[in-house]
Give the backbone structure.
Amino acid sequence: MDELISIIVPVYNAEKFIRETMDCVIAQTYPCWELLLVEDGSRDNSVEIIETYIRDSGEERIRLICQPENMGAAKARNRGLQEAKGRYIAYLDADDLWLPEKLEHELAFIREKDAAFVFTGYEFADENGKGTGKIVHAPETLNYRQALSNTTIFTTTVMFDTQKISKELLEMPVIKSEDTALWWKVLRNGYTAFGLDENLVKYRRPGKSLSSNKLEAVRRIWNLYRKAEGMGVLDSAWHFCFWAVRAVSRRL
């Protein structure tokens, strides 16, 4: 029997990409899913585009959930988690794309490994969603200590099984780089992340995206070590050096 997968997408000023993102979900070869679009106080036409898309497509598997105001990606994803009806949780950012086999292959993988937490490889893409040929491969497994120095896990690639890991534990910390903070929290609680080394995701990187601000990215990761994980300066610096080398090598 097919199990429901709940796909959670935080939406903030995503009018340029959200149609294509919804299209990539509709195109999935695995049919048993719900798409939760958590609108987070956009100032553009994101809401109108989504409402029109749902009406014109007649697609009952897509739900629009509106936050009362802009509250940030962590709270938007947590709202989606609360509303989710599926056993499995998958995250998708509003400007990223999935290949059609993403859900089918990842679900087969999480079942094969009897895992609570899995992720896949991905390819960097330009603003038009065209792959650059730079693919990030997924290691077989990552534990907590390994993940502290390795940011291979990318939000749009993950899937969780809520029969093996509680929704309470899956709530994202309200902190910058909330996704990385969540992976570390889950792994710190004794789980292992299993990697499916298959390129099933296109990570679109618009020029003005948050992750393109390298100095800000450095500050966010450093603060995670010091504040979220409570690590000392020397331990933080040790892990940070390995993180920086891997982060740079993925982009070369």
Observations:
- Strands lie at 5-11, 33-39, 62-66, 88-91, 97-98, 117-125, 131-136, 141-142, 159-161, 193-204.
- The chain is about 35% helix and 25% strand.
